[in-house]
Design goal:
The protein has 328 residues and is an alpha/beta fold. The protein contains 13 helices and 11 strands. The mean pLDDT is 97.
Length: 328
């Protein structure tokens, strides 16, 4: 059997608009596309390097230098677990390899990722994110995609009132709220949880700092809507902690290191009666398409990353040769 070969291509994903959340603003994300080849079979993976996480292209190069890939894709999970034990601070990079291996398995076997795990290929609508912005820019962003089923509003405690009022002026469509650690005032967060419940909002995501679990527990006990962990939840190992302080998790395949752990974490979350979102970190269609394959395990889907980009090369059907040429 032919060995699996790896090539990679650094790239820069550009946003349509500056993306602002409670603690940062950026105009794009550096990433690397991974191409695995085995005989005639080829498949892509993707790793993004979000600036408030520690991994970079150098991390990826260190991980893959001299890396011995498996001879086949029969047991991806065991290979990935071994990598995580050797490189415990490289989950994003490992996640990109995990996705590439799953896509290669699809190429070899003809089985989709959903079929590999015996999952339903249920299609769920994704939310569409509106980052913190002026009223005028928020209206422009909404008018770019007025067709979306529902929206996710990024907020902080200072601007949540303005942002919600502006959105309600624009549309009567449903929305959710993601504070990205933007609250410090417990009572204000509780007041807003009741206001949001009255507006039909289904959850409030990560209101307080990721280490402030006591504030999240206090709010969880009193809030009429679920309190969801995002920054406080990284991977499977965090579930036992998170279940004490939150009602649910936002699972991102980059943060948990790929599809194999993502499936395990979502299944375990369901057993623990935790609500779940499958989310994204502004990746392109490579990660988004893989994550959609396991989205039937989640209660909500937030995989709008490709919709926020100007240069998603994988949004259209292109040959490997054309993609490699464009990535040079």
């Amino acid at each position: 059997m032919d060995s699996i070969k790896l090539a990679y291509f650094p790239y820069r994903l550009n946003f349509k608009y500056p993306f602002r959340i409670a603690h940062t603003e950026r105009t794009g994300t550096d990433n690397v596309y991974i191409l695995l080849s085995q005989g005639e079979n080829k498949a892509w993976g993707e790793t993004v390097f979000v600036p408030y996480y520690s991994e970079t292209l150098a991390t990826f190069q260190q991980l893959t230098q001299g890396l011995l890939l498996p001879n086949n894709t029969d047991d991806i999970a065991t290979f990935i677990v071994g990598l995580k034990s050797r490189f415990p601070d490289s989950y994003f990079c490992i996640g990109g390899l995990d996705i590439a291996l799953h896509n290669l398995r699809t190429s070899v076997t003809g089985q989709t990722i959903a079929q590999q795990y015996g999952l339903s290929r249920e299609v769920k609508e994704t939310s569409y994110t509106l980052g913190i912005a002026s009223d005028e820019e928020m209206e422009q962003k909404f008018n770019d995609r007025p067709d979306m089923h529902y929206y996710k509003l990024k907020v902080n405690q200072e601007e949540i009132g303005r942002i919600v009022n502006t959105f309600e002026r624009l549309t009567s469509k449903p929305f959710t709220i993601d504070a990205n650690q933007g609250f410090t005032d417990r009572k204000l967060a509780l007041e807003w949880s009741y206001k949001l419940a009255d507006l039909g909002v289904e959850y409030l995501e990560q209101p307080f700092h990721k280490e402030d679990v006591e504030s999240h527990l206090w709010l969880k006990k009193q809030s009429p809507i679920p309190i969801i962990a995002d920054e406080s939840f990284q991977n499977y190992a965090d579930l036992e902690k998170v279940v004490k302080y939150f009602d649910g998790i936002n699972l991102k395949v980059m943060k948990c290191g790929g599809i194999s752990e993502g499936v395990a974490a979502l299944q375990r979350a369901k057993e623990m009666e935790l609500k779940s979102i499958i989310g994204c970190m502004s990746e392109s269609s490579v990660v988004s398409n893989a994550a959609k394959q396991i989205s039937s395990l989640a209660d909500w889907v937030d995989l709008d990353g490709p919709l926020l980009l100007t240069n998603d090369l994988f949004a259209e059907d292109r040959s490997v040769e054309e993609l490699m040429e464009r990535l040079k």
